[in-house]
Amino acid sequence: MKLKSGTPIPSQSRARGAILVGVQLPGAKGYPMDLSLEELDGLATTGNYSPVATVTQKLDTIYPKTFLGKGKIEELREAVDLHQPDAVIFDENLSPGQNRNLEKIFGCRVFDRSWLILEIFNDHARTREAKTQVELARLKYALPRLTGMWGHLSRQRGGIGMRDVGETQIQLDRRLIRNEIYKLEKKLKLLDKEKITQRKGRSRLYQVALVGYTNVGKSSLMNLLTEAETLVENKLFATLDPTTRRVKKNFPFPILLSDTVGLINKLPHDLVASFKSTLDEAREADLLIKVNDLSHPNLKNQMVATDKLLSELGVADSDSIAVFNKIDAIEDSSILEDMQRQHPDAVFLSCKEGEGIDDLRAAVVRSYEKSLTALRVELNHAQSGLLHAIQKHAMVVNSDYHADGVTLDLKVDPRERKKLDRVLNASVTLAGEAPGPVKNRNHR
Ligand SMILES: Nc1nc2c(ncn2[C@@H]2O[C@H](COP(=O)(O)OP(=O)(O)OP(=O)(O)O)[C@@H](O)[C@H]2O)c(=O)[nH]1
Ligand SMILES: [Mg+2]
User: Fold this and answer.
1) Is the residue at 439 inside a domain?
2) Ligand 1 contact, 239 CB (< 6 A)
3) Is the same domain home to 163 and 187?
4) Residues 353 and 213 occupy one common structural domain
5) Atom of ligand 1 nearest to the CA of 212
6) 121 with 134: CB under 8 angstroms?
7) How far is the CA of 234 from the centre of ligand 1 (A)?
8) Does this model's pTM top 0.85?
C-alpha cells in the first residue's frame, strides 16, 4: 500500500510490532472494513509500528467489557502469545474501560486508531500551537485510561510536558493531568489571540485554502502555486501546521494561499476540537480548493469523509473548486473520463507532471471575479479627477463618456468597499448597484 512507505520516525530506530484489529460493525456504512484496515496499516507504519498480524470480526453487537466476543478475544490472545507484539491496535474507538480490560487480558499495550493518530501528530507537530493542541488532546484521551501498567505518559522537564515513553511505567496522578489540561487550555487561548491579531493584517487579501484528505497532494500543489518548498512526503499527516503565503506571481492580483492539515476518517474527537483552530485558515477563506487523489482506490469514501469532517469542523462550503490530483497515476483512463463527466467544473491535474496548474489558476481568478460586486457610478465633469482614486479600489469594466460627464461600471472587491465609499463622497451618484453572486463573508 502506498501509504506504507512513510519514512519511519527518526527518533525511533526499530519499528515496534503490532497486531491490527478490524471490525465490521452492524449497519456500518461508508468506509468498508478492509479499506479502513488498509488505512490503519498505513497509519501504523507512519507511527513506526510494524504490523505483524491482522484480526478481523463481523460484529452484531459490541461487547461492553471487551469490545469483541469471547472467541475472538481468545484468538487474539493466542496471536499475542505467538507474535509478542508491542501493541494491539483497534481500528474502532475503545472506551476507557474496554481499553483497560483488554490490556489486562493481553498483557501488552492496547490502543485504538485515535491514539495512534495522536502519537503520529505528537511526532509531527512542529509549532508551539500544534504541539500544544496535540498535547491537550493526548492528555484528555489518556486521563480516563491511566492503568499504571504501561505508563502511556511521562513527565518531561522543560519542553511541552508529556511524551509517550512506552513501558516506563510512570503513572501520572490524575490531578496533575487535570492541572496540565487547564494550563494548556489557557495557553491555547493566548495563542489564539495572537493568531487573530496576525490575521487581521491579512484580511484585506483574497484568501484561498487548500483542504482535503491526508496525502492527496495539498502541499505539492502549494509548492507549485507559490514556488515554495513546503514539506511534501508520502506519509500521512506530513503537514500539521497551516502555512500561509502571499502569492502574486501568475495571478493578476495577490492572494493569500494556505496549506492545511490533512483529514482522515475516524479522527479522534478531541483532536477534531484541536483542528478547529488549526483550520481557521480554511474557515475564513474566501475560496476552498478541495484536493482529491484521483488515483486512490478509496477516492469516493475519502471525498465523503472529507466533506463530513469539514462540516463538523465548521468549514462551510463557501466558494470552492474541486481538484482531482495525480491524474498521471491512474492506469485506466476511463476513470478520468467518468470523473470529468461527473464533475464538469472540477480541475484535473498532476502536480508531479505540472499538468493542469494553469487551469487551476484560471479557476481561482474566475472565483475571485465572481466575488466582486457590480457598481455603476456617475461622475460629472467637475468630479472626473476622482477617476484615478477610484481605480485604486475598483476595476473599471466600462466607461461611457457623455455630455454631462462619464458613467463608470465598476467591479468592487468587498474588502475595498469602505475605501471606495470614502472616495465616492456624497456628491457622486450611485446609479445602480447589483450584488455579486458570492457572499461577502461576514467575519470581515
Ligand atoms: N503520482 C503523483 N504523486 C503525487 C502527485 N502530487 C503529489 N504526489 C505525491 O503524493 C504524496 C503526498 O503529497 P503531499 O503534497 O505531501 O500531500 P498532502 O496532501 O500535503 O499530505 P498531508 O500533509 O500528509 O496531508 C507525496 O509522495 C507526493 O510526491 C501527483 O500529481 N502525482
Ligand atoms: Mg501536506
Assistant:
1) no
2) yes
3) yes
4) yes
5) 19
6) yes
7) 6
8) no
